[in-house]
Amino acid sequence: MTFQPTSPFPPHGSAQQVAFHRTELAAILSVYGRMVAAGEWRDYGISSLRDVAVFSVFRRTAENPLYRIEKRPKLRSRQGQYAVIGMDGQVLKRGHDLRTVLRVLERKLIRAVD
Fold first, then answer.
1. pTM of the full predicted structure?
2. pLDDT band at 19 (very low <50, low <70, confident <90, very high)
3. What is the DSSP letter of 106?
4. Domain boundaries, given as residue ranges, for the chain
């Protein structure tokens, strides 16, 4: 009988988390900065899970997110790996290019001047 030690950690590479790349975060934070300057948004949160990376945007700290920007690499060959999801769970925009997907949020910034 041979003894094989078991590790509480999974083998390297088997359960990696999905995360945003530096260039993706730069695009997201660019939109975020403009919305903070306009007084629309105040806080954000980033989650890196096994299947999805989520950038959540909040109007106030202690409430549900207004929008979620998600990256799901498994959908890369189908609908696109990036999505903007509203507070009610409705997908506002999905696509392959992050900057194109983020344009749906920039439309919220454009308002008529009184």
1. 0.76
2. confident
3. H
4. 22-106
